[in-house]
Amino acid sequence: MIESADIREWRTRDVVDPDGRRIGSLESVYVDTGTDQPAFATVTVGLPTRHRLVFVPLAGTVVGPNYVRVAHAKAKVKDGPSIGTDDVLPAEDEPALFAYFGLEYLPPADGVRVLARR
């Protein structure tokens, strides 16, 4: 289990795919609002003048001395849902994010969002 306190220390580390290919730099973490456990990370990708943030699930993540290795291929992550560098994932976009990675989306009964940026 990844602890929220630990993952905040990973900010700006390289995020790599299972084959060690660099995807980008870890920017922030989204936690599950029901458990407060890290669920997704945003990764800064793009050209120096045109950055964007892409999402990647944190399940199966391995942390090394200078990297965070995620369980999804670089192409899958880079082609996935993204937001601007100053944006936050809108609640109405959460189901599509989960679907893109083949994850089950269980909206909370009280209507609160599933993911929150930390």
Automatic annotation (TrEMBL):
Annotated InterPro entries: Bac_photo_RC_H_C (IPR014747), PRC-brl_dom (IPR027275), PRC_barrel-like_sf (IPR011033)
- Every PRC-barrel domain range: 7-71
Pfam families membership: PRC
Q: What's the protein here called? A: PRC-barrel domain-containing protein
